[in-house]
Design brief:
Blueprint (H helix, E strand, L loop, with lengths): L1 H121 L1
Length: 123
């Protein structure tokens, strides 16, 4: 009788060990599955952040190139406006010179007409 109780106890312990081992394996599989799911979920966020960073880098390079081109165009426009301004000043100088010569010619013409009239009256 005692040996049957010991045997029965050993069988029960063996069954409990097997059940415990099965539960441990199930827990390991569940923990592994949970870990994989969490890592996958985190990797999606990291991958999205990486893609966003790549896009931001590309767009910042494009923006830098556009700003550089804009600065060059602005410098060209400023040079063109400066040249235009210089030409306008020169045209203004020529116009003043022409007016000065025109006034001198009128003075000379008036003096010649006066001299001619005085010469006609004396004759």
């Amino acid at each position: 009788m005692l040996s049957s109780i010991v045997k029965e106890h050993q069988v029960k312990q063996s069954a409990k060990r097997e059940e415990l081992e099965k539960k441990r394996k199930d827990a390991v599989v569940a923990a592994s599955t949970l870990t994989s799911a969490l890592v996958d979920h985190l990797n999606v966020g990291v991958a999205q952040a990486y893609l966003n960073q790549k896009r931001l880098d590309y767009e910042s390079k494009q923006l830098h190139a556009n700003v550089t081109n804009f600065a060059k165009q602005t410098a060209q426009w400023l040079q063109l406006v400066e040249s235009f301004s210089q030409v306008l000043k020169e045209i203004g100088d020529v116009e003043n010179w022409a007016k000065s010569i025109e006034n001198d010619m009128r003075t000379i013409s008036s003096a010649l007409e006066y001299a001619y009239k005085v010469g006609q009256e004396e004759s």
